[in-house]
Structures are given as C-alpha cells and as structure tokens.
Amino acid sequence: MSYVNLPFSSLAGPKQVICAKGSLLGLVGLGASRVALICSERLSQNETILKLLASNKRTDFKVFNPSWNGEPTLSTMKKTIGEIEEFAPDYIVAIGGGRILDGAKIVWALYENPLFPIERLNIAFSLPELRKKAKFCAVPTTIGTGSEASSAAVLLDDINNVKIPIVTHCFLPDLVLLDTDMISDLPDSWRCITALDALSHAIEGHMSNQHNPVVDALVVPAVKMILESLKEYKNTNTKLSLERINELALMGAYYAGIIQNVLIVGPAHAIAHQMGDNGIPHGLATGLLLPRVLEYYSSVESDLKEKLDSLGKAIGLESGSELISTLTSLPLQFGVATSFNDWTPQKMSTSDLAKKAQGDLLSRFFPIQIPNNDLEGMIQKVWK
Amino acid sequence: MSLFKEAPYELDYKVKSAKLLQELTEEFHYQYENSSVYRKIVQSDGFSTDSKFTKLSDLPFLPVQYFKQAGDQLKIDDSKVHRVLSSSATSGTPSKISVNQETAKRQIKALINVLGDFIGKTRKPFFICDIEMKLDVAQRSNLPARMAAMQGFLTFSSSKKYLLEELDNGSYAVKVESLKKYLEENDDPLVICGFTFLLYASLLKPLIDSGEKLKLPKGSYIVHIGGWKKLESEKVSRETLIKSCEDIFGLGAENIIDVYGFTEQLGSLYPECSEGNKHTATFSDVIVRDALTFKEIKDGETGIGQFLSLVPHSYPGFSLLTDDLIKVEGREQCPCGRKGTYFKILGRAATAEIRGCGDVIAEKLLKKSVGVKIKSSEIRTSYLVIPDHGNMLVKKPFEIESIEAGLKKSLLNLKKTKVDDLVGVILEACNVWDTDPKFEPYKKQGLGYIINWIRSGQLQQLLDFSMRGSRLSLDQFVKSNFDHRKFRAVGRGIAVHWLAGNVPTLGFLSLIISIVAKNANVIKIPFSADPLLAQMIAVFDDITYTPIGERAATPGSVVSDSISIVYVDHKSLDNAKISELADVRIAWGGADAVKSIVNLPKRYDTVDVVFGPKLSLACVGREALQKVSKARRVARNLAVDVSVFDQEACASAHNIFVEEGGEVSPLEFSKLLAVELEIMKEQIPITKINPGTLGKVKGARMDYHLNGEVISAYGLEWSVLYSESNKMQDPVYGRTAFVNSIKNLEDVAPLLSGDNQVVGLALPTTRKTEIAELYAAAGVDRITSVGHMADFSFPWDGIFPVENFVRWVSLS
Predict the structure, then answer these.
(1) Could you give the 3-state DSSP secondary structure of residue B132?
(2) Looking at beta carbons, which residues of chain A come within 8 Å of B461?
(3) What's the pTM value of the predicted model, to 2 decimals?
C-alpha cells in the first residue's frame, strides 16, 4: 500500500474474496481466538453459520444482534459497541445488508479506537489504523450493498438527519464471502431494490469525473451481470440455475461496489444521502433517481450522452436511452414503487434536498456542474 | 581620575553620574585599546572604538565569572603586574585579578576615602578575627584576596592583633585574652574586624553562650565583611548580629559596619550605614539588571547588580555583573545624610555558589572541626503524602507493609479494568490538567507536551507497538500472528518510581505507562517536591471515564487507589524497604541519583527501568547547506530542538556538528542559528531560570571568547558557541548550542557512546541512512530529523517502554 496521495488512479480492495455457493465455509478458517458475529436475529438462528463457527475448537464465538434498526446512528449503536467491547473479539464477522455491514464497520472502528474524537469521524482517512484488536469479515445478504468492497461506512447523523460517510481504506475487509445461498430467499422486491442500488454504483461511477484503467474495465461486466441476473430471475423459461443467477447478481454487485469505491458515485447518491432515514430504502432512492440523472446528462452534455450510448451498446442495447428505459422499467417488473410517493406520503422540500445534495462530498465527482434547479428537477420527477 | 579627589558621599547624583560616565568611558577605551581579550569580548557584543555612551547603563559589562575562567588573561596586555589576587571559592577555579601599581594605588585611595568616612581617619588598634597568614616573598605576588582585603583595612591600624590561632590538629582556638588584656589596660577606641561568620562563630557566639560582656571603649567599631549566606543558614539575622554586638560590646548600631565588596573589584567597598543601606562612593555606582535578560530594572525592584568602579585599571573590571541580588533604595540622599546611590543586598541568586569570602572560609574551617557522622536525628521522617482537594497535602507516617497491602488490594480492580478504559481515565485527567489553572506552571514544564502526546493517540500506539501488535493482550489472551499460540501480558505488580527534580513532570510518562500496563505504583518524591505533583494524582479521584459503548463507566479512583506517594529521606532505611517492595524500579535522574537507586537492595527478579542522564546532539550535512534558504530552514528546526524544554530534556540538542564543504560555512550557519534562536525566544518563551545554569552559561561564553566565537543574546536567553575543536562539549543548558565545524559527519561516530540518546540529522535520505547505521553502532538510541528530536517516540532509551512493566504468559 502506498501511503502517498498520488495523482494517479489506484485500487485498494479486500484481502480475500470467495464467491461461490457455500463459501461461508471460509468462516472455519478465520484463525481467530474470539469471533463476534453481528447479524440479524433471523440469521443468528441459521444453523449452518452457527455450526461453522462452532467447528473451530480454538475459537470462542458469540452472536450479537445489532442494536440499531434502520440506518446506524451513534446512539442506536451504543449497545452493540458496549457488548463488543465487553466480549473483546479478535475477529468481527458481519452478515447482512448494507445497514448491518456499515454499522458493523463503525462498531469495529470504535471498538478499536474508543477514544477517537467523534466529531472527527466525518474527516476522510482520519481514523487511526484498524486491526490492532480485530480483523473483519463481510458477508452480504443482498445484491446491492457494495459495503463489502467499500472503504466507506455510512453513519446517520440523527440530529440533522443526514448521512455521513466515514472513509478509511482500513474498512476494506480481510475476508469477503459472496455465498449465493445467502441471497437465495431474498424477496423479489428487495432483489430489485438492492440491484438498483448496485446498478447505480456501476453506472454513476462510470459517469463520474474519475477514471481508473482497472476499474473502468469492470463497468460493462458489472452492469451486464446485474441486468442479466434480474432478467433471468424473471424469465420463467430461463436456462440458468438460481445459483448461477445469484452468482451473477453477487459478482455484478461486488464489481459495482469496487466501481463506486474507486470512481465515486454521483447525484443520485448525493440526493439519497440527504433523505436520511425517512423510510425510503436507499436502493430505491438511488434506483429511481438514476434514470433521471442519466436523462439529464444526455440532455445537457453530448459527451456524456455519447458515453452513456457506448455503455448501452456495450451491454447489448441499442443506445443510452434504451438503458434509461430498462432502468426505469425494472421497478414495475418487480412490483416495487415507481415514485417516492408510492413508498411514503411524507414529502421533503425538494429545493432543500437539492441544496444539501450540492453540498455533499460526492458533488466534487459530478462529471459536470449541475445547477440547484436542475437537481431539484430530477427529484421532482421521482417525488411527484 | 578626578573623582578620587572628591569626598566620597558629597556630590549630587546628577553631577556625579555625568563625571563618572565620562571617566568610565575613558576607562572603556583604555581597556579596549590595551586588553586584547576584552576587545574580542566586547566586539562580539557590537562595541568598538566608535561606541558612544549616553548613560551609565550603556556601558558594556563582564560577568564576574569571566575572572574565574580567565582572570589571568583578562588584563592589560604587557602590563607590569604588581600582584595577582585570588578569591576564595567553595569549588572550581577561584577568580583572579591582576593588579599593577596604579590599581593598587587606587585601591588604597578608595579604601581610605570610603572607610575613613565611616570609622574616621585616625589610626586605631585593630583586632582581627582571623588567623594570621604568613607569606614568603614569592607568595606575596600571588595574594589571596581575603588577605589583601584585611591588609587594606589595616591601613587604619595603629597596631594589630589576630584573635584566631590555628592549632596543630587543623582546628583553631580563639585568643580572646589579648582583647581582654587590652581593654583592662586602655580606654582608647579600637576596631574589631573580620569576616562576618567567623566574627560571629568564633567571638560573638562563645560570648553569648557564656553570658560574658566585653564593653568596648566609646568610638570603637566592629567592621565585618564577607557575606551572610552561612549566617542565614544558622538562622542568624542581621538584626540578631547587631543586637548581640550592642549587648556584649556596648556599641550602637552605627558603630557596627557591614561592608560589601567582591574580589573582582577589590578596593571598592560599600559599607552599610545606620539606616541599613549600602553606599556607592563618587567613583562607583550600581545598576540593577534582570538575571536572565540583563535588561535594566527600575530602582526599587530586585535584580542582579552591575557594579561600576574606577578602581580597576590594570584589568577590565570597571563594569562587572555579579550574581548578588540588589535593590536600589535611592540615588540622591540617604536618610543617613550620604549622597549618591544607596542599595540593599538581598542575597545571592538562588543556588548560586556560596561566594562570599567569609562564607567560604567558614565552610573550610567548619569542615575541619565538625565530623561527617550522620546523627539519626538528622534524618527526616518518612511520610506518606495524601493529596487533599485544596493545595495542601496531608503527610502521614507509614508502614511499608500497610502500603504494600493497600496496593495489592487495589491491583485487583486495576487488573480487571480494560486497557482502553484506563487510557480513557487518563484522557479525562488530561482534560482537568489542561483546563485547571493551578496546573498551568506544569504545562509549561512538560505536562502540556504529555497531554498532547496522549490526546493524539500516541499512548495507544505505543501500547500496540510494545504489545506485539495489539494492546488487547493486556486484557486477555490474544492469538499470535505467527502460529496458534495465544499470549497475554500481565502487569508485574508494584512499580516504584524515583522521580527527579522539583517538578518531575517527565516522570509522569513512566507512571502513565506503568498504570496502563496495570501495575500499582509507589512514587517516591523529593523532599522539595511541589505539592502540585500530588494534586495531579488527586485529580483521578474526581473523574470518571464513560465509554462510548453502553457499559459501565470507569471511576478514576481505580488509578488513584493504586498509587502511593511517599517521601523517604535518602539516608533512611526505608529506602531499602521500598526498593525491595518493587517488581519494577524506575529511576529518573542524573548519574549519581540513578546509580544510588540501582544499588539499593532489590529482589532478584525485579526489573530496572532507568531513564538516566543522556545527551543528545545534532549533525548538519553539507548537503543541507547548499543554499542559504535551505540552511535557514535547518537552523529554524534546530532552534526548536535547542529551545523546547529549555534544553533540560535528554533529547535536547547541545552539540551541533556542522559539516564543511557546503555553500554556507559552519560559522555562517552558526549565525543563522543565532537568528532563529532569537525568534524562538518569543515563540517558545523561557519557563524556568536556574541561576546555576546562568552561571555556567557565562563561564562557557568566556571559554569561547578565548577559544572560539560567541554569538549570543544580549542577556543569557541563548548562546551559540562556535569552535573548530571537533570535541563533544559537556552541556551547560540554558539554550546553549555548541556548534562544531567538522570535515565529515562520519568523524562524529568515534565521539558517540551509549550516553547519547538522540541525534538529529539534517541530511538527504540516502546518506541519512548510512550515517544512522554508523551512529546506531556507536551507541545512539534514536535518530530523527532535526526539529523532531524532542518528540517522544519509541523505542525510548533503547527499549519499548511498556515491555519492562509486564511479563508475558503463553497459552498453547
């Protein structure tokens, strides 16, 4: 790892990634003394997981159900932090969706650095090195999270209702297990919502002002795999097994996670971060906003239109507009909301949202400067 | 020298000071022209033949210490020396002044003028409270100042008798019979003279004890000279002395005359009048200056005295800065009627060497007559210090056994506390130490640095480094990164800390490390320790660390309960007992202190952690001197290393080796360093003035006036002493940088040893690594870039400090 801020693109990733059905078996070889498993109550009953962890006679393990319900906040995480501090693990395994993985990362950071000044958490790369006390394993149970490939964890500031990204490359896990079994019983609506988030990671990252020769190459396969997994999942005559469909989904989402970590996402995420914990799932927010953002790009900047067209063609579509149509139609196909109003009647001020999105750290990576009015316009289209 | 013709105390100050300035200016030019050493010294301060002086305080001055260092060279070139006078001194080299016929004449003139005004010019029988010193002809040319002073007094004598007799066994006897006999046979007034302490101890005290009175004839005088320090240590005040003389000899206070003077201006006497003021004559004056900055101080305020006198002419002694604390009471007319400056002597700058002749003689004579056997009553009682919540301390007698039992009990709680919770408690204490104004003086002396160090997360980092990568091993067994073994670190038990100095804040570092390694602690403080030290510990009683996670808070009492603060006299047997109690002994201090601690009895498995006397230095490579701008940056960084902690830290730079061959020469670099040290004076203000250090700085400057170059502040705030000697100089502290020009930095290696802690390097990376390898092999503990020498880092003194406070247990 080079610790110099070089003017070149670089790629940092997890130490080890295993993508396969049954890859949970990797939990046997953690080589730890005490393992803390952070997962939902439902998963804490999962016999496979419990058996695997218990199989290592040299390891003590304990299950912790996250004390936060929804986006993690400092106050809702206190209980789990206290429990983890008491147990003092040397390995933390987080199994779940984005909220659990991100929350577990923050718990881990504060367990390692309990005296770190909280007010400095939002300063990127300010956290001291981790792994003085524990290593970290991430097992996603949804398609879209990207947390397992991300140097960030999102914390909800429950006073200002704003999401704060905590950034350090130390968050990149020691081990990522992409086990297709973990998403086999994912409900259709969540399959779609989280896949939309993964698509927005890949496509917003692709459209950002950042480039990386290694990561750029992942964009087409990522979008292609996610779209194919969704298409084949709905195709009653598919020749693909569910295991293969899930593998495509998990790998595509993992690639998308790498893309968002390196190329950085755009306006859809910047707006979604301002919506706090208002009940609209993060994946739905970004997924519904994404086509509107792409429409806007195509209408104001020919280079961006061209870039989007190329992406559309590369994944086997006619054009960028076909990609936009595909993205727009996905929620309908999976029977999830097509606008925010369908999900929550509570409407936030669109001008406020636009203004705050403009101030989000992500705005630095927008490919073009977007006036407030235009940002507001995109929001109004999904929050009619 | 027209002023010698005037009556000593008749001129108005304005007239006198104008004339004195004129005559002293002539003296300056005379010395400048005729004394090459003097010329070199004042030239380095910017004086020349063109120098003009508009007031007395403009005249350059030399510290009296210079005559200790180089009295034999500080004289008029090629002058015919009549005699050399040497002062007494308790240690080191005595001051020497070279007196020729002209100066001798002036000494006599001055003495007659001044003393005559006080005791009258009629000759009287003199009884000298001293032993008679007989000199052969050869010795007469090298006369002790003590004898010269007495000889001067005897100018007024019609006859002389010595009241002390040296016995064969080295002690002395008082021959008071000769005085009694005279009194039986005569009614004429007489003079008893001698050094203050001898007069009291050999004549007055025996008479007080016996109740005998010796009424002296009317018009008799007692004249004493030579300092009060020794008498004050015997709790005898000026008032007591006068009262005793009045009672026993029947004299009024106006007939008991305390005369102030010093060897380097022998002949200039400042007798004390009945109002208790010392008087300057027409040919002398006094200016009061700040001991550190040398800035002139207003009349009525206390500072060190700069004495001006027309008496010295064969050597540059006309304007001398002493260590004596002076307060000018007035410049016009004393209530006693005498005109001119009158002042009080308020003692000598604290810890300055006993210097008054009388004090020194008393020391020497007392050493002969008193043995060195220590009586048990002289041992101060050991006590336990219990800090309360005010500024006072409760001192209680203690039994080692009860301290041990208490600490072992407290260890149970300490060991159960998580290491991060202990760090949390310490951070809470830092918040109090940082914000409570009573700790402000400590903050300037290292505490502020420690607070910042802890706050920046360095303590956890040190723990992680020292604990094989994870501080968690202080709480539980942790799996090795290399195999399946698990290991854990356990605090050794009781750590005993011997803290050095009155304000031992740096010793807090080892205390904090010992606490987080979960040891109970005994802090052995010096007798003179500031009560604030115990107050710092008391802070733990009132704080609680609340963790971010939802779990129990940790009370600070976990820490304070596990600390005992004790005072034990260094002669007490309790020292050995405390030492035997220790599982870890931590010694901070100088070589002697550290040696005496490690030589105390201990258990066979006790671990010693010694933070002994180490010295640090800096090396500047020619690559860093290729451009003036680059050299200036290096100088700025080095000025930081010289200035932080006022050079008292073992990581402070003292010697600086500067390599030849760069665009900027070592001497030019010295000048750049001087500029930066002057700036640093404002940015890192001096926190502590140690008079002993100030004396050493003056001495070092004189050495370099003779053998190198001196670039210094107007006062004593900083000094750059340049030479081409290629020698490692002993430190004198007080921001004194010895800059040595050297051909190659590789040649520094043979000068290094295990006594060197840090070397600050100004070099490009490739060469830095090569030089670092060389210096590491030579014994140096830490190598840094210049500007970072004092950053507390690890390993420190060659060890990862936490390691010595724990033992390792494995589980496989």
Answers:
(1) coil
(2) 128
(3) 0.77
